Amino acid sequence: MSWLTTQVNTHGDGFEARLIDTLQQAGVYDAVFNICGPFGVRRFVVRFESKGHTIDITEIETLPLQYGGGAPQATTPQNMKTLKHTLKTLKHKMSGWATWEQGVLGVVRNCDNEMQVIPFFDSDVEGISVEHLPTPPQGHPLEDRAYLHLKASVQAQLEPVFMNTNAISHDWKEWEIDENILTLVYEDDIESTVERKRCQVLATLDQDGVWAWQVSEPLFSEEVFCWEYFLCDWDSAVELGMVCVARLNGTWLFYSLVSTDPQVTLFVAVWD
Amino acid sequence: MWLKLKWWFEDHRWGVLQTLWFVLLAILLTYPMILYPNSAALGSPRADGMKHLWTLWWMRSSVWEYASFPYQTDLVNYPIGMDLYPIEPLNGLVALFLPWMPLIALSNFLALGNMVLTGITGAWFGRLLSRSRVGGFVAGTLLEGSAVMAFFIHVGVGELHHLWWLPLGLGCQLMARKTQEWKWFLAVALCLVGAMLSCFYLGFFLALSVLTWAVFTGWKGRQTPKLVLQYVLAAALSISIVIPVTKSFASSYKTGSVPEIGLMNYITQNHGQPVTDPPAARLETRQLLSPNRESQSTEDAAYGGGRYLGWMALGLALVGLVRNPRKAAPWLAVAAVGVVFAFGTYWTVGGEEVRTAGGIRLVMPMFWLNRGLGYLAEPLNFPIRFLAMTAVAISAMAALASRSKWAIPVVMLAVLEISWGQMNPYPWKRFYPRQASALSVMRGVDDKAVIDLALAVRSDMENRYNALGTQIVHGHKLHAVPVERVEYFAREGQIFVQATQLFRDLVPFYENRGGTMQSEYRADLSVLQDAGFGWIVVGYRNGAERMPQGIVDALSQLCGPPVAKDAGIGAWKLPEVTYTDDELTLWKNQHRLMMEAISLKMPGMGPPQGQPPSPNN
Lengths: 272, 617
Hints:
- The complex is a heterodimer of chains A (272) and B (617).
- In chain A, 32% of the residues lie in helices and 32% in strands.
- Chain A has 272 residues and is of the alpha+beta class.
- In chain A, the strands form 2 sheets. In chain A, strands 5, 6, 7, 8, 9, 10 and 11 form a 7-stranded antiparallel β-sheet that branches. A 4-stranded antiparallel β-sheet of chain A has the order 2-1-3-4, with helices on one face.
- Chain B has 617 residues and is mostly helical.
- Residues 604-617 of chain B have low confidence and may be disordered.
- Chain B contains 26 helices and 10 strands.
- In chain B, the strands form 4 sheets. A 4-stranded mixed β-sheet of chain B has the order 7-8-10-9.
- Chain B folds into 2 domains: 34-65 and 96-430, no CATH class; 437-601, no CATH class.
- In chain B, helix 2 (13-30) packs across helix 5 and helix 5 packs parallel to helix 8 (165-179).
- Classes of the chains: A alpha+beta (272), B mainly alpha (617).
- Chains A and B meet through strand 2, helix 5, helix 6 and strand 7 of A and strand 5 of B.
């Protein structure tokens, strides 16, 4: 008889709901989300076992997905330590009603960061592997192979864009975009200076990490340019902005807040 | 014998104990590396350490395994090969004499050795300056324990480990000025040449320090003309050797051409000279004295350290300045020059460039210096490294603080304070190459070259990092150049592989999205075999992903079972095929045409393209 069946027979139908609640209370969900990274499609299993008073994570098993992603991106020592700690808390919280010595967490997350964690313990662990997990229906555009190839292919062009973007002073008093012209107004006590540059508005990034294109038609054909919006973190947003600038043969990437509540940042490709 | 040893020790007691102290200090600063010297290399995993490890391997392997001169190598960009300038020749040279030592241990002991050497030369320099053993001890300890030394190890740029060039060269200069003997001026010249060739940055810092100190101590009464002449001749000797080499360095790294105008015009006029230092590589004043500064990003954590001078070290330097202003003042000037140039091209605060009322950026002296260097050799990208001059100068001033032994515990506390206050954490960061020990079975099997499928599919930072690590393990020649920036200019091997149908058919399997293999690949296998390829290595990231069954099946169908297989990595031996000369000639021609087609459209490997199209398009 499997571990789960034994527990359900002992504790009744409410066992699974209680188990899920305990997983959340122990912080396992948050810890697993952290090792997944801020965005992206994930599909992997975490194997762990109890050793005395500690928990050992013995393996993270994963396969590359056909549309990119799959493996957790943030398995830093700190995040792994946190995960171990939460698993220890889980064991402690369960000790009064369901014991286990080893376990597996099956983790699946889709491109909208909706995550499912499926736990297996003791005898149920046998034979569980990543292939048994459901596959999310689509990938994340920033993990799409075509985008990864594009990034690798424009590295030479990215260097000057990165350098120019860093070299531009961001202390303008005002800025305005009208008809693909970016106007920057620098001002102090004595005088003001106005600079006008050709530009192309790219996208916005809001405080929830949603990148939304602000173009009438996709800039290029790769998937990342064709999704209207997707989840993204700040570093990846700046990188994507710079890739656009490089691909457009632009000079530097302008970014500035267009709204403070909620926070929305605008990204613009600029030609000097 | 025992008695002789005892007498020798009596004569050199201070030197021996002091050296032991510098060894102990290096061990303490890098602790716990000494307990596990071969488990992980000193340096940040986000910085340049992997290139450092690979360079040591490349130089050692070229000589011992391939019996060839390292600088013209076909270990990368196979089958064409390339001229690869040794970015850290001195470490590479030492590595040649230690062929038995595991690579990570070698890297760690080289770092440790350079730190100890910095302490010893710093002590020699401090003792010459202060005429006191304690003064020497203070200078050596402060320099070895400085945030700059820690940063140079942390950032993983092996040639910067030779910080000892600065106290060595400056010590020779002290002797040269004092004795005015030609041999010491020759020693200064040789130090300049040695430093410049082993690390352009440190050589340049030494030259600038020598110049600054010479200007401030140039007057020597009636001996002044002779002194000036000696300096000029030493400088001329160094320059005559260094300039041709640095020019060849600039050309081998394709740093761009300059317009056909004079040096002064290039420095003073605007000819679109590049600004090569990013704001993150520039010093901001508050960073010098702010303890426990926290990194703002992963890049900052890798490259943002080395800026904290230490309050106690500055206090010692101030005491030295007060007690012996005549000797200390020139070093104050050297420290100031280091700080001024560390500010970089434009004055930067909070990561942003400061502008005047008219929107003009505040130009720093580095602006013109870099134009001059860009004309003669190569502009400097990382002005923060100028703080090496400041660290040496502070050590010099601190050496003048006291001859009393009370300075010994004080300087130890000063090092403790620097270690506590600097941005790079303690214990120092260490990094691990990708786990690829399974590939070690490939070593010595034959001398056939390897196709690294991941690198052929996508040459990005992650795949380059992994390729550096796996090549160290399998030891075979590689079709691509896994060194960033250099790869832009040596892409023939990459194109050679990409021009095969076999590669194009394997890509979808590698990406786990199906794929179809043809019934045979005689043409491709013949061309690859004729060129000397014998292996395919497939690697997935850092081993976190399992290999998709599709790529295992496809390669096993073509090559038989894998020779090596582990988490996310595998190696197959390409099957040997037979062919006639006529067949080979035909297939090579077809392959050449495909290579030409790919080289025309290969994206991203060339320099930036021309004028931008209209953004409306």
